[in-house]
Write a structure and sequence with these properties.
By secondary structure, this protein is α/β, with parallel strands linked by helices. It has helices at 8-20, 25-31, 35-38, 59-69, 72-80, 114-132, 157-165, 184-191, 211-228, 234-237, 245-251, 277-304, 311-325, 343-355, 387-392, 414-431, 435-440, 448-451, 469-489, 501-515, 526-538; strands spanning 40-43, 46-49, 107-108, 111-112, 146-150, 175-179, 199-204, 238-242, 258-260, 330-335, 373-375, 399-404, 459-464. A 6-stranded mixed beta sheet has the order 1-2-13-12-10-11, sandwiched between helices. A 5-stranded parallel beta sheet has the order 6-5-7-8-9, sandwiched between helices. Bound molecules: 6-O-phosphono-beta-D-fructofuranose.
C-alpha cells in the first residue's frame, strides 16, 4: 500500500490546508450564512453540528476522497463480513454482532454467530430478572441488594460508565459498585459497608488471567467465605463473564454461573456483551434491548450511509484533519450531562488503546500523527477548571460537546442554564472576542490583550433529545466507528494492544523481588534496582 503521506489525496489535503489554516471561523460564517444549517448530520437519534470546524465547503470532499483512496469502504465491509481484520491476533472483529437483532445473519468462517449472542442474552435476561425480582437469592436466603463488578479496562470502564449513565433507568433498590484497581483500597472501600449475604460479585474478564481482576476476585472470595463460612456459598454469590470457561472453572466458579462471549469481541468493544451483565441487572432486559438497538441503529448508519453524510466517518475525518494537519495533540470530550461523567474515561481506553500505535498494518513506522490524547470532564464543571486553556492557551484543542434537549431531572431553570452554557462555550471558542470589542467596552489598553479571545477554536456539538438507553448505545457505537475510521485511515490495527504487555511482564518479575524474604539479586537498571531496595527496606 502506498504510504499515506505519499497519496494524491493526502497531498491535495496538504495544499488545501495551506489555504484554510489562516481562515477565521468568524469570516467563514460571515461569508456563508447557511453554514450552521448545512454542516450538520442527523443519525440514530444524534444531531451533529460540525459547522464550527476549521473547514470550508471543499474540505469534507477532500477528506472523504482520502477515505475512499485508503479503502475505508472495503475495511468497513470486511469488518461486518467477519474477516479476520485484527491481523496481529488473527481474529475477526464483530462486536456489531452483539447488538444485531434476532434473526440477523453475521458469520465468522461461515458460522452464523448471532444465535449464540441471543442465547447468552436470554440467559443474562433470566438471571437479571431473578436478581431484580428477588427470586435468585443469596446463600442464606436473603435477596441480593448489591452487585459488585470486578474487572479492569474494558471489563470495567464500559459497564461502569453505562451503569452510571443509565442510573435514571435503573432499579433503585439495587446498588452497583465497580472494583478494578489492584490497590486493595478499591476493594476495601467498595465492600466495607456491604453485607456478604446480600452481595453478588460479577467477575468480568475476557481472558480470566488479568492480575488485578484475579487478585480482587480471590479477595472477594475470601471476604465472602469468611462471613458465610461455607464453600457452597460461592455458587450463590459469584458469577463469571469470560471467553474462557476452563479458567473460570479452575478459579472455582461453576460454569453454569458463567456468561460467555467470544474472541471476536475486543475488551474495549465489549460493554454490550455479557460484560454488560451489571448494566442489564440495573436497567432490566427490556431496556437493555433498547440499548442494543441504539448501537445497531448507528451500526447500520455507519455501514450504509454515504461518507459525506456518515456521522462516524465525518467525525473521524475531522479528528484526523486536526491531528495531522493542524498538529492538535489532544481532543476534549465535554458531556453536558452529569450522568455521562464517566464517559470521557471510558472513551480514553476505547480511543487510545485502539489507535495509540505507531506502526502500520505492514509494520512500517508512520510518518504522521496518529491518535491524540483524549480527555474531558462533564460541563459545566470543566468550565471552572481547564476551559481557560482551551480558550486562551497556546494549543489547539478540538472539542466534542454533548448535550440533551430534555433533562431527566427537571428542576427550575437548571437545564436551561446548562444548555445556555454549552451554546455559550462553543460560540465563544469559535468566534472569540476581538481586541477592538474589548477596547470598545472601555477596557484600559494594558488589559486588552488579557481579555481578548482570539477564537477560531473548533468544536463539534452533538445534540440528542434525551439520554435514554438507546441513545447511549448510539453514542457509544458512534465513537467506536470514529475510532475504526481513524484507524483505517492511519493504516493501524485498532484491535490489538501489544503496548500494554511489557509493563505486565516486568511487574511479574518485580513482584517476587519485592516479596522475597532475603535480598534478591537485582539485575534491572540502577534506578529500578534502587527503588526496589528502598521499598523493601521501608516494608509494606
Ligand atoms: O491490559 C489491557 C487489557 O488487556 C485491556 O485491553 C482489557 O480491556 C483489560 O486488559 C482487561 O482484560 P480482561 O477482560 O481479559 O481481564
Amino acid at each position: 500500500m502506498t504510504p499515506l503521506t505519499q497519496t494524491p489525496a493526502w497531498k491535495a489535503l496538504e495544499a488545501h490546508h495551506q489555504t484554510v489554516r489562516d481562515l477565521h471561523l468568524r469570516d467563514l460564517f460571515a461569508q456563508d450564512p447557511a453554514r450552521g444549517r448545512d454542516l450538520a448530520i442527523e443519525a440514530a437519534g444524534l444531531y451533529l453540528d460540525y459547522s464550527k470546524n476549521r473547514i470550508t465547503r471543499e474540505t469534507l470532499p477532500l477528506l472523504t476522497g482520502l477515505a475512499r483512496e485508503r479503502g475505508l469502504r472495503e475495511r468497513i465491509d470486511a469488518m461486518f463480513r467477519g474477516d479476520r481484520i485484527n491481523v496481529t491476533e488473527g481474529r475477526a472483529v464483530l462486536h456489531t454482532a452483539l447488538r444485531a437483532p434476532r434473526g440477523t445473519v453475521m458469520e465468522v468462517e461461515g458460522h452464523d454467530v448471532v444465535p449464540g449472542v441471543h442465547e447468552v442474552l436470554d440467559r443474562m435476561a433470566a438471571f437479571a430478572r431473578g436478581i431484580r425480582d428477588g427470586s435468585r437469592k443469596g446463600f442464606t436466603g436473603k435477596a441480593i441488594r448489591t452487585v459488585v463488578n470486578i474487572g479492569i479496562g474494558g471489563s470495567d470502564l464500559g459497564p461502569a460508565m453505562a451503569c452510571e449513565a443509565l442510573r435514571a433507568y435503573a432499579d433503585r433498590n439495587l446498588q452497583f459498585r465497580f472494583v478494578s484497581n489492584v490497590d486493595a483500597t478499591d476493594f476495601r472501600e467498595a465492600t466495607r459497608d456491604l453485607d456478604p449475604a446480600t452481595t453478588l460479585f460479577i467477575v468480568a474478564s475476557k481472558t480470566f488471567t488479568t492480575q488485578e481482576t484475579m487478585a480482587n476476585a480471590q479477595s472477594a472470595r475470601t471476604w465472602c467465605l469468611d462471613a458465610l463460612g461455607d464453600p457452597a456459598a460461592i455458587a450463590s454469590h459469584f458469577v463469571a463473564v469470560s471467553t474462557d470457561a476452563a479458567k473460570v472453572a479452575a478459579f472455582g466458579i461453576d460454569t453454569a454461573n458463567m456468561f460467555g462471549f467470544w474472541d471476536w469481541v475486543g475488551g474495549r468493544y465489549s460493554l454490550e456483551s455479557a460484560i454488560g451483565l451489571s448494566t442489564m441487572i440495573a436497567i432490566g432486559p427490556e431496556q437493555y434491548r433498547e440499548y442494543l438497538d441504539g448501537f445497531h441503529a448507528m451500526d447500520e448508519h455507519f455501514r450504509t450511509a454515504p461518507f459525506e453524510r456518515n456521522l462516524p466517518v465525518v467525525m473521524g475525518l475531522l479528528g484526523l484533519w486536526y491531528a495531522d494537519f493542524f498538529g492538535a495533540r489532544t481532543v476534549a470530550v465535554l458531556p453536558y450531562d452529569h450522568y455521562l461523567r464517566r464517559f470521557p474515561a471510558y472513551l480514553q481506553q476505547l480511543v487510545m488503546e485502539s489507535n495509540g500505535k505507531s506502526v502500520t498494518l505492514e509494520g512500517r513506522r508512520v510518518d504522521y500523527a496518529t491518535s491524540p490524547v483524549w480527555w474531558g470532564e462533564p460541563g459545566t464543571n470543566g468550565q471552572h477548571s481547564f476551559y481557560q486553556l482551551i480558550h486562551q492557551g497556546t494549543q489547539l484543542i478540538p472539542c466534542d460537546f454533548i448535550a440533551f434537549a430534555r433533562t431527566l431531572n427537571p428542576l427550575g431553570s437548571h437545564h436551561a442554564m446548562l444548555l445556555s452554557n454549552v451554546l455559550a462555550q462553543t460560540e465563544a471558542l469559535a468566534f472569540g472576542k476581538p481586541a477592538e470589542a474589548v477596547a470598545a467596552e472601555g477596557t484600559p489598553a494594558w488589559l486588552v490583550p488579557h481579555r481578548t479571545f482570539e477564537g477560531n477554536r473548533p468544536s463539534n456539538v452533538l445534540l440528542a433529545q434525551r439520554l435514554t438507553p438507546g441513545l447511549l448505545g448510539s453514542l457509544v457505537a458512534l465513537y467506536e466507528h470514529v475510532v475504526f475510521t481513524q484507524g483505517a485511515l492511519w493504516d493501524l490495527n485498532p484491535f490489538d494492544q501489544w503496548g500494554v504487555e511489557l509493563g505486565k511482564e516486568l511487574s511479574r518479575r518485580i513482584l517476587p523481588e519485592l516479596e522475597a524474604a532475603s535480598e534478591p539479586d537485582l539485575a534491572h537498571d540502577s534506578s529500578t534496582n534502587e527503588l526496589i531496595r528502598r521499598l523493601r527496606s521501608a516494608g509494606q
